[in-house]
């Protein structure tokens, strides 16, 4: 089912992997089955704007691989998949924050940008993140903090489309 690459088949594969894990909890292929359960969720990840339930479930499944089978050949790959899932969630927080910013709902935008920075440090913090975080803080009257983010755009991302507007704001 997993190899058929369709939504319904990933769900069917997940059912079989979980059944195997329940029926044969000490089998030598449990690490593989647990990893594939995670992959069944991972293959169903939607864009960051969509429902993140599959992302959270994929993380849980991959964490079980790392916890229950740390010596398996799947543990390192599971850790990499967790990072990819967390990056997806970080991007989701950013996009929601950017939406609030565009609606002039700066407090809500700040909440999302702050949450992103705290829950997913370093996973989605490029020029666009620092620009919108800085602009949001600036709009809320927190110009020193906002200026720090805008300066980061200028210093670390000088060739991006955000550098000139950041320079204009600070001027």
Note the run of SSEs as H and E: HHHHHHHH
- CA-based shape: elongated
**What's the total number of strands?**
0
* Approximate helicity band: over 70%
Give the distance, in angstroms, between the N- and C-terminal Cα atoms: 59 Å
Largest sheet: none
Parts with pLDDT < 50 across at least 5 consecutive residues:
none
**Strand fraction band?**
under 5%
* Rg of Cα set: 20 Å
**Tally of individual helices:** 8
What structural class do you assign from the helix and strand content? mainly alpha
Q: What do the pLDDT scores average to?
A: 95
Structural notes for this entry:
The chain is 72% helix and 0% strand. With 171 residues, it is mainly α. It is elongated.
């Amino acid at each position: 089912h997993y190899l058929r690459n369709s939504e319904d088949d990933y769900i069917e594969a997940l059912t079989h992997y979980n059944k195997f894990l329940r029926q044969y909890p000490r089998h030598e292929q449990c690490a593989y089955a647990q990893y594939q359960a995670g992959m069944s969720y991972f293959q169903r990840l939607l864009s960051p704007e969509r429902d993140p339930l599959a992302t959270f479930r994929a993380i849980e499944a991959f964490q079980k691989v790392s916890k229950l089978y740390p010596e398996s050949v799947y543990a390192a790959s599971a850790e990499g998949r967790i990072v990819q899932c967390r990056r997806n969630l970080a991007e989701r927080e950013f996009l929601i924050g950017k939406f609030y910013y565009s609606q002039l709902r700066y407090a809500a935008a700040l909440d999302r940008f702050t949450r992103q920075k705290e829950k997913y440090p370093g996973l989605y913090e490029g020029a666009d993140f620092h620009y919108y975080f800085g602009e949001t803080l600036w709009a809320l009257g927190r110009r020193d903090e906002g200026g720090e983010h805008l300066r980061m755009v200028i210093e670390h991302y000088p060739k991006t489309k955000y550098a000139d507007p950041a320079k204009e704001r600070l001027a």
